[in-house]
Amino acid sequence: MSIRYSDYTVEQLRTELGQLVEERQKAEQLGEVNKVAILERKIQIVTSYTLDPDSFHAGDTHQLVGDPGYKFKINFINGIMAWGHRINLLGEIHELEEALPISLLGDVVKQ
Fold this sequence. Notes:
There is one protein chain. A five-stranded antiparallel sheet has the order 4-3-2-1-5. Helix content is about 35%, strand content about 25%. The N and C termini lie far apart (about 45 Å). Helix 1 packs antiparallel against helix 2. The chain contains two helices and five strands; from the N terminus they run ααβββββ. With about 110 residues, the protein is of the alpha+beta class. The longest helix is centred in the first third of the chain and has 20 residues, at about 10-30.
């Protein structure tokens, strides 16, 4: 029976994070592009479990980590996922609502 990340202790999450980062580095060296993408997503999820979801609020707009061309406005938080809309540099809001791990949310943008 496998344990879900939500059941991990902080120490277990840190250990898992270290292992995933190491795996990703090996995959990068071997040129395994698909494996790198999968491991990157796992790293985002594990990192999200180390953050406090209560420090993210509906209505806040955040910079997106690793994607300076977009901001993200939160509609609501469900666990470690923030649901909302991307906003491009021109201030245009994408119609499609999406969910992002909270680890992808950077600093709050002042309106």
